[in-house]
Amino acid sequence: MSTANAYMTIRGIDIDVIYKDIKNLHIGVYPPLGRVRVAAPNRFDDDAVRLAVIKRLPWIRQQRQQFKNAERQSEREMVTGESHYLWGSRYRLKIVDRPGRTHFEVDGDRLVLYTPPGRDSTSLRKALDGWYREQLRHVLPVVIARWEGKLGLSVPKWTIRRMKTKWGSCNRETRHICFNTELAKKHPDCLEYIVVHEMTHYLERGHGARFIKLMDSVMPDWRIRRDQLNAEPLAAEEWSAEERSAS
Fold this sequence. Notes:
InterPro entries: UTP_pyrophosphatase-like, YgjP-like_metallopeptidase. It comes from Dermacoccus abyssi. This protein has 247 residues and is α/β, with parallel strands linked by helices. The protein folds into two domains: 4-68, no CATH class; 83-244, Zincin-like. Helices cover 35% and strands 26% of the residues. It has six helices and eleven strands. It has helices spanning 46-55, 57-68, 121-151, 188-200, 209-218, 222-231; strands spanning 4-10, 13-20, 26-30, 35-41, 83-86, 89-97, 103-107, 110-115, 157-161, 168-171, 176-180. The protein has a four-stranded mixed β-sheet with strand order 1-2-4-3, covered by helices on one side. A four-stranded mixed β-sheet has the order 5-6-8-7, covered by helices on one side. Strand 3 (26-30) and strand 4 (35-41) form a beta hairpin. Helix 4 crosses helix 6. It starts with a strand and ends in a 16-residue tail after the last helix.
């Protein structure tokens, strides 16, 4: 059976399309984040698939809303014993009251927070966010340099910030790439996927056939990495599935 893969975005929703030797078009919405996959007959073109998906949008959004309402990681209270994630691994927080600056250290399966007594959870969460940024600042230059060499591209400017709507973003005019602080919680393969995804936008603005071809050529397992990124524990923020997609 011959198949051909395509990737399109419809009303802000990413769609994986597989063309097959079948009679009817099938649309599926899958956990954990409501990714949409379409199996379409070979006789269909992209416009026909797009029209079919648009007609089913109310049902698709209903299914995705159910996944959105699934249990998420609650807001961190910053107390000893709760779970935190770094590079895809879970650590148990241990708080040690000690005079001096607030800082974190990884000790085995523990994330140890040294902090002066009396600091509230809001300030400790802010300190944790800053620590995640430090982890990314340490790792990103190595990952970017590696892929600059592989792709023959240069990244002149990149930054890290909290983003509610994207894992990463790329300004093709200024070549400025921005990475979400939350990536420090995910497996390194996921960070590498976002780096390559955003650098590929230097060559192709959208997510059409050329973008897919470029991604397939430089990172054949990018779909697995993307699904891994979206399947790992979610933060407390109310992010929708499309808001968690890369640009």
